[in-house]
Amino acid sequence: MQFHDVRVHRSDEDLARTDQLAWKIAECAADPVEVSAEVTEMIINRVIDNAAVAAASLTRRPVVAARSQALAHPRSFNGVGATVFGEQRSRRVSPEWAAWANGVAVRELDYHDTFLAAEYSHPGDNIPPVLAVAQHLAVTRGLTGRDLVRGIATGYEVQIDLVRAISLHAHKIDHVAHLGPSAAAGIGTLLGLDTETIFQAIGQALHTTTATRQSRKGEISSWKAYAPAFAGKMAVESVDRAMRGETSPTPIYEGEDGVIAWLLDGPEASYQVALPGRGEAKRAILDSYTKEHSAEYQAQALIDLARKLYREHPELADPANITRIVIHTSHHTHNVIGSGANDPQKYDPSATRETLDHSIPYIFTVALQDGSWHHVDSYRPERASRADTIALWNKVTTEEDVEWTRRYHSLDPAEKAFGGRVEIELANGKRIVDELAVADAHPLGAQPFGRAEYIDKFRTLAAGVLEEGEILRFLDAAERLPDLAADDLDQLTIVARNGLLTSVPIPNGIF
C-alpha cells in the first residue's frame, strides 16, 4: 500500500492535480491489475448476499416506491438498460435509476456487509451502481463478468481505504460521502476509463453526496435506506458527465473551501490515506464482513451474546428478575445505537423500524427474551409494545469502556472488536457478567460465513419471494460471475414469483 498525505491547501499554493487525493484514487481505479481468485470468490459471496436482502425487501414500502420511480424511467440511449430487482429481466430502465431502485432494496433491511474503522460503511452498496452500468453497456462495450468483478473490487477497495483514514461521522457527515467516490471509481474501472475522466467523476460524486447524519439520528426515516442508493445514482450520473468532458470542483478534498476544510477536520487537518500502488492487487473486500442478523453491525455480536445468555439463563427473559443491565462497549456503539445517543426514540415502542434498528437497548432486550433475531418479526409493532419487553428494555443502558473503544479502532484484525461486556444485576442480588468481541458470523467468530452460509441466507430470505427455479437460476449465474459473457450479465438479478409485486399498492408521484 502507498500512503498519501492529505491536507488543506490554500488556493495560491496551486496544488498539482496529480498530488490530489481524488487523482490518487483515480490512478488506483485506472490500474488494470487483475483480481485474485480469493477476492473474486468473496465478490461472488457479496453479490449473493445483496440479492438475498433485496429479495426479503421487495414488498416493503420504501423499496416499492423506489422501484416505481425507476420503472418510470425506461432504458436510455447508448445501451440496453439495466434490470430492476423483482421485475422481469426483459424490463429495463436507465442505469442510474436501476442503481437507485436496487440500492434501496439492498439497503432497506440493514442486512448486508459492513466495514467499520474511522468511519462506518456498507461497501456492498457499491454493487448496484457498478452492476447497473455493466448491464446497460455490456453489449455495446463488450463488458463481461470479469470486467464487473474488477469494477466491484475497486469500489470496495476505495470505500474501505477511505473509511480506514477519514472520519465523517465525527463531523455529522453521513458515511455515503465515501460511497459516492468509491462507486464512481468502480464504474471507471469497469469501463476502463482513463485517470483524468475518473478523477473528474470522483470529484463530482463527492461534491453531490456530502449530506448530514441527521438521516441516522432521532426519528430515523426511510432515507436511511435511500441515502446510499442516492450516492450510487449520483456516481452513475457523475461518470456520465465526466465522460462527456465535464469537470468537477478541484481540489475537492484539499481546497481551502473544500470538503476537509469546511465539512471535516478543518483548515489545519491532515490525513494519511493508504491505497494500493500500481500493480498491487485490490484486496480490501476481504477485510469486510456480512451480517447474520438484520440490525446495525455494532449490534451483531451483542445479539449473539444475548442468544447465548438466553440459552444459559432463561430466567433473564423476565424483567421481574432483573434490576438493571449495563452494556459496556465502544464509544461508537454507545453514542450511535446506545443510550449515549440521548435519543428518546431508542426507548419508544412506537418508533420506526429504522429507529429500532439503531437501538441496542431494544435489540438486546428482544434477543434476550426470544433467544433469536428475525428480520421482520423482531421489529413488528406488537413485538416492540409487549409490556414485559418495555419493562426490561427500560432497564438496559450502555456505557463507553475505553478498552472496547481501543479495540474497536485497533488496526490488528485479531484484536479489533465490535461487541462488549454485559453486566446484569439480578433482583436477588447476584450478578451475571459475560462478553463477546465479534459476531459469530465474523471471519474470526464462532461460525464464520462461507459460501454455504451465504447461499443459506439467500435461500432463507428468498423463500416465498422467488420460485425455486429462479433461486437455482440466480445462484448458478452468480457462481459463474467471472465467466459471464456480455449478454449474460442480465442474469444477475432476481425475478419475483408471479403475483407478488402486483399484490402491493404502487404510490403515485411526479413521474
UniProtKB/TrEMBL annotation:
Quaternary context: Monomer.
Reactions accelerated catalytically: (2S,3S)-2-methylcitrate = 2-methyl-cis-aconitate + H2O
UniProt organism field: Cryobacterium zhongshanensis
Protein EC: 4.2.1.79
Top-level EC class as recorded in UniProt: lyase
InterPro entries found in the cross-reference section: MmgE/PrpD_sf, MmgE/PrpD_sf_1, MmgE/PrpD_sf_2, MmgE_PrpD, MmgE_PrpD_C, MmgE_PrpD_N
Domain MmgE/PrpD C-terminal, residue spans: 293-477
Similarity-based family: Belongs to the PrpD family.
Domain called MmgE/PrpD N-terminal: residue spans: 20-271
This protein's UniProt keywords: Lyase
Gene Ontology terms, MF aspect: 2-methylcitrate dehydratase activity
Protein name (record): 2-methylcitrate dehydratase
Keyword Lyase found: yes
